[in-house]
Amino acid sequence: MSSIPPSAETAGREGSRLCLACGLCCQGVLHRGAHIEHDEIETVRRLGLTVIASEEGPVFPLPCHLHQEGRCTVYTERPNVCHSYQCKLLRRYLTGEVGWDDCMRLIDLAKDLMTQISRRGPADLETLVDTAALAIHCKKNFLNRAQPKVVLGP
Description:
Mean pLDDT: 83
Structural class: mainly alpha
Distance between the termini: 28 Å
Radius of gyration: 16 Å
Strand content: 5-15%
Low-confidence stretches: 147-154
Largest sheet: 3 strands, antiparallel
Shape: globular
Number of strands: 5
């Protein structure tokens, strides 16, 4: 189902609203870490994040402990990688390929799967099935491989 893309004026505000409703990238569901620029290292450390060295440069590991109760606690001060990252769903929303209600359904499905997984033990067969379903759902709807220098691995 396609929709009318948000105007340039509202795209930034709507994109932020979508990100705040989701947070899968912050929770480590899509990536294991986020690359930062060398000049951001001190700022990132000041925010309380651990900076580790990688072959591609400095990274902070995900999930991010600053994402609490479904929100980024430092949203206005977040690192550039967090500010600039656009998952597949956000890009599809901003181009009008998918509407707000469909985005919310996809986000809710991912969150529901995460909740089901966290309620069960790791050896539970249903946990393995839900984990696979979450991985497929996220790869199809959220994971953005178009920004290879932005994130560390899936």
